[in-house]
Design brief:
single chain; 153 residues; alpha/beta; Rossmann fold; four-stranded parallel sheet; 5 helices
Amino acid sequence: MPSVNSNYQIVAFCCQYCAYAAADLAGGLRLQYPPQVKIIQIPCTGKMDILYALQCFEKGVDAVIVAGCMPGDCHFLEGNYNAIRRVERVKDLLRTIGLEPERIKMYHISSSMASQFVSAIEEMLTMVEKLGPNPLRSIDKAKQKEAISKGAG
């Protein structure tokens, strides 16, 4: 496992049938991946709304992973194809606001691909280490301090 700054934050939206099952299998096999990753189980990656990803970035998350079924193997028929389009839209929006589009990526991981799940996380963490922290995180902390000082005064 690469040594990565523990201050980085990654959110992984995982399909319950495939990627989440792969994450669970990785745990069962005692495959280690960095603890900075917060996994959110969703019924299908097609359910992942653009706003979910944008809110993550707004809150200071450094990267977002969308991990779902293999192409053509979605339990909801076309959910993963919808997710691909949404991830591309988020990339366009990130470019527009000045963030790197590499901060979000779609992975196709079946339920038996535990080592590929771990590799995907390590790949994203390595990418985040190269890009640095989300610049919106410092803005969010400044707003928090301002709200605290207003509330105390």
